[in-house]
Amino acid sequence: MSNLTVSRHFVQAALTGAEALGFDTREMLRAAGISPDLLRIDMARVSSDQFSRLMQVLWNRTGDEFMGMGPRRARTGTFATMCALVIACPNLEAVYRQAYQFSRLFEPMVAMELETQGEKARLVLRIEGEIRDPCYFLRESILVIWHRLGSWLIGQPVELEQARFQYPRPPHGDEYRHIFHCPLAFEAGETALTFDKRFLSAPVIRDQAEMRQFLKTSPADLLSRPDESNTWTGRIRALIGRDFSRPLPDFEWIASELHISPQTLRRRLKRENTSFQEIKDLLRRDLAIYYLSRQELAINDIAAKVGFTEPSTFHRAFKKWTGVTPGAYREGDRGTLKG
Q1: Are 157 and 151 in contact (CB under 8 A)?
Q2: Which of 48, 243, 267, 323 could in theory staple to 4 by disulfide, Cβ–Cβ 3.0 to 4.6 A?
Q3: Which residue ranges does the record assign to the HTH araC/xylS-type domain (predicted)?
Q4: Range(s) for CATH 1.10.10.60 in the chain?
Q5: Range 232-323 has CATH code 3.20.20.150
Q6: SS3 for 308?
């Protein structure tokens, strides 16, 4: 099972284009295994598997990889064709230049353009024409897909130094901390990702067979499942594991396992916009949401599984995370919310 969840905001934002085009979005949610009732809970979250399925349902039903939000339609298969082209590139710089050339073939253009200056490289978002993207989902998706596709092709995360956005900080801006793992700047001159130029010379290590496998679930997986393996956050999540029924390792032990001093690790986590306590809390929250979807588990048993000795403490913590009690959350997930 994947132990990551996606905020209700992104579920609703992903559907805005399809809704404007007149599609039955409740039916789309159900096709992805998401109860429409669950979305009535303000702080609800869905599993990354459910979100992946929703993205695939959206692309298939609309026949548009821009999901009705772009300045034009991007026919299904556009992303796969671009991937077939860039897999032959020698390194990451060639990947980004080739992907930009491919995207320029379509008018109006939607692409990320690579710029270099000194030791820095930037991927700058270029969108021509009018877009219908009130929740910024299309723009966020393009940034994430190009960044994570590049990381996958070279077999290592391209560590971001800054993410800049032309628009004001949106109400869901807090989620950006966990998407980009780097300092954020809003109301900037352009929407762009900055990273060290050294990544551009990294060779492409994937082959055609791996690309075919990758395309079975992408780009949906790129959006729903960040590759955190090489972030400090991801390494700590891996060390903590999923068994919260026994005492968790402390920060000092984690730091020693990562061969780094506790002070340096704190600084690194701050740079990734998080903390050790937050990592533990979010892991507990995601695990609790996963267990609540398994109807055979009693809520008190779930409390123990996620590390709470007192069910009442679990109820309070869960309400803080999601705004509702575990029981109400389960009702919403089952589609039996009243009123």
Answers
A1: yes
A2: 48
A3: 234-332
A4: 232-323
A5: no
A6: coil
